[in-house]
Amino acid sequence: MVSTQSKAFVGTALLVFGAFAVGNAIHQSVVVGAYAPTAPGAVLQGLAGLGAIVVGHHLYRPANAYIETDVKDEPDDGTAPETDEAVGEAPELSPLEDEDLERLDADDPN
Fold first, then answer.
1. pLDDT higher than threshold 90 for residue 80
2. Alpha-carbon separation of residue 14 from 26, 73, 92, 98 (angstroms)
C-alpha cells in the first residue's frame, strides 16, 4: 500500500506539472503566437495539463492530513497538560534577561 505522504508528493508534482503544461499552451498559442489556440498541439497540451491537474487534485492531501494519520491514537485520560497555564513558564528558556522578565511581570495585570 502506498503511503499518504507519497500520494501527497505525487499529487503536488502533478498539480505543478499540469499548471506548467496549461500555462505553456496558453503562452505559446496566445502570447507568442507560435501556433493557433485551436491547433492540435495547443489543445492536446492543454488537455494533458488539465488531466494532470485533475489527477493531482485527487491525490493531493494537505500536510495536516498525513501528519495526523501517522500519530498513534492514545486514549485521553485527562492527565496530560493541554494548556499553557497547565504547563507553566520556564524563565531559564526565555530569550529575555531577568530584568526584562520582571518588567513584563510588573506590567501584567494578571
1. no
2. 18, 32, 47, 52
